[in-house]
Amino acid sequence: MSIKSKRDYILDCFRNNPGKELKLKEIDEMVKAEYLKDTGSTDIYTNRTVRDLPKRGFITELNGYIKKPKRGVYTLIYGKIPSIKKSPFSTLDKKKIKKRDHYKCQMCGIPETREEILAIDHIEPEDSGGKGEYNNGITLCGKCNNIKSNLKVTTFGKKMFEKYRKIMLKKGDSEIVDFLNEVLEIYKKYNRN
Ligand SMILES: [Zn+2]
């Protein structure tokens, strides 16, 4: 008998191979080899325990979590599980936003057609905590949406800044409001839309 549990052997295996994609069979072989050293036996079967690990979430002993990037492959990722909690728009809000924006892309102005279905995007990005709410939504075409997701300030668009400013005014974030005021002044100065 070994004083280490099956789980300990498996966790050790991940600990020794952080970030590496390990196949079920590889894990089983590595564990068997270690178990053999400790006990003289290979009578240990790991598959079921390994398969269960991704469901366990954050594993304190590993200071990370087990991800299953593809079938039969497991890997240790250090750190907390990234929050995938996004804030999408409801169907109703999407409809209302499009209507408010006159069914036109708010950056380039192209109208919605059967070929070009406009999308609703977050003005304050989701990653910064922007919510999928009416006031944080903007109607964009695919092209402008791509530009926006690259966050190139120079092509961000006056309307976007104006709407962002409105939201930040409400939020009372005076630093961003000051910044946006200056940006909008520059649009005025160069007579750009
Ligand atoms: Zn557009």
Describe the fold and architecture.
By secondary structure, the protein is of the alpha+beta class. The protein has two domains: 6-78; 91-189, DNA Binding (I), subunit A (Orthogonal Bundle), CATH 1.10.30. It is 41% helix and 13% strand. The protein has seven helices and six strands. The strands form two sheets. It has a four-stranded antiparallel β-sheet with strand order 1-4-3-2. It has a two-stranded antiparallel ribbon with strand order 5-6. Strand 3 (64-70) and strand 4 form a beta hairpin. Helix 1 (6-15) crosses helix 2 (24-39) and helix 6 (158-171) runs antiparallel to helix 7 (174-189). It is elongated, with a radius of gyration of 26 Å. The mean pLDDT is 88. Zinc ion is lined by residues 105, 107-108, 110, 140-141, 143-144.
Identify the notable features of this structure and list them briefly.
single chain; 193 residues; alpha+beta; DNA Binding (I), subunit A; 4-stranded antiparallel β-sheet; two-stranded antiparallel sheet; 7 helices; 6 strands; 13% strand; binds zinc ion
CATH class of the largest domain, please?
A: Mainly Alpha
Strand order of the largest sheet: 1-4-3-2
Main beta-sheet annotation: 4 strands, antiparallel
Distance from first to last alpha carbon:
76 Å
Low-confidence stretches: none
- Roughly what percent helix? 40-55%
Count of separate DSSP helical elements: 7
* Rg estimate, integer Å: 26 Å
Shape: elongated
Bound molecules: zinc ion
User: Which structural class should the secondary elements be placed in?
Assistant: alpha+beta
Number of domains: 2
Q: What is the average of the pLDDT values? A: 88
Order of helices and strands: HEHHEEEHEEHHH
CATH topology of the largest domain: DNA Binding (I), subunit A
CATH level-two architecture of the largest domain:
Orthogonal Bundle
User: How many strand elements?
Assistant: 6
Q: Report the portion of residues in β strands.
A: 5-15%
